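Bumping with the actual sequence this time:
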Amino acid sequence: MYLVVIGWMYVVLMMSVAEATNTNGSVLGAIVTFFLYGLLPVALVVYLMLTPQRRKALKAREAAELRAARGQAEGPDSAEPDAGGHAPGAAQNSGIAPVGKEP
């Protein structure tokens, strides 16, 4: 796509030079030719052609922000429980005494 843009800008530049160097032309006419045939249409076409890429980048950025917001909202206390099958909490004394000791 950029090759077409570069080629068109070259053509418009040559049109502007021809306008400026012609006996009936003027520098103001060359500037108007360059802007109206070159910069404005090319800027519009490039803007329109890059719209899908901008949308894709915006969605990716929003998804990353959403993932980051969810990660901060959960915090360390709301983590998923472990799969060990035991209730969380401090160790408790068991009702069975070790061998050779009285309870």
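The tokens above came from a reply further down the thread. Helices lie at 2-21, 27-49, 51-74.
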